[in-house]
């Protein structure tokens, strides 16, 4: 199977935080940030696989700080590991105050995307070659995250939580 540098898919996007993007506290809605994260992760996975992709999971989302109206968000995303048909994508979001030039890490996330063919069936993807120390470290821990996702799926924790919620409702 072919191997591709992580730099092949690395993508950056900039977004301006506007009033409709914010909540009653004047900070950006978490859901808006999640939408940006999902979009850039899809773009990165499509660049890596040269296929349409779907989001299989969002393993983690860490909201570390917020952004306010007028801030510029910079999203950086890269494929950090691959399975047979899946790609793990790391997304980092920074906010920048244009008046002070202060940059702040606001959000990090890891998503799993699956490449699909024209019929919607999963298709194999090229392996990824990490390019820097941060990517190599995430690459090393990818199997642990994959095992955790499989355990969650096998134990049906999500279904169990839904059934518990329904029985109380």
Walk across the major sheet and give the strand order. 2-4-5-6-3
Got a strand count?
7
Q: Which second-level CATH architecture applies?
A: Roll
The stretches of 5 or more residues where confidence is low (pLDDT under 50) are none
N-to-C span:
50 Å
Mean pLDDT: 91
Overall number of domains: 1
Q: What is the helix fraction of residues, given as a range?
A: 25-40%
- Helix-strand category: alpha+beta
Give helix and strand order, one letter per element, not per position: EEHEEEEEHHH
Give the overall silhouette: globular
Rg from C-alpha positions? 18 Å
Using the coordinates shown, work out and report the CATH topology: Thiol Ester Dehydrase, Chain A
At the first level of CATH, the class is Alpha Beta
What percentage of amino acids are in beta strands? Answer: 35-45%
- Counted by DSSP, the helix tally is 4
Sheet of most strands:
5 strands, antiparallel
CATH superfamily: Hotdog Thioesterase
């Amino acid at each position: 199977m072919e191997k591709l540098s992580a730099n092949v898919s690395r993508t950056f996007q900039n977004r301006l935080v506007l009033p409709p993007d914010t909540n009653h506290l004047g900070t950006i809605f978490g859901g808006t940030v999640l939408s940006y994260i999902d979009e850039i992760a899809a773009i990165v996975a499509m660049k890596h696989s040269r296929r349409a992709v779907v989001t299989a999971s969002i393993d983690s989302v860490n909201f570390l700080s917020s952004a306010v109206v007028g801030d510029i968000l910079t999203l950086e995303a890269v494929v950090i590991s691959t399975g047979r048909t899946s790609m793990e994508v790391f997304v980092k979001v920074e906010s920048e105050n244009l008046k002070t030039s202060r940059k702040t890490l606001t959000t990090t996330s890891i998503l799993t995307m699956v490449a699909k063919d024209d019929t919607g069936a999963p298709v194999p993807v090229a392996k990824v070659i990490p390019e820097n120390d941060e990517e190599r470290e995430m690459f090393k821990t990818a199997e642990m995250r994959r095992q955790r996702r499989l355990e969650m799926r096998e134990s049906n924790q999500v279904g169990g939580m839904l059934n518990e919620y329904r029985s109380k409702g």
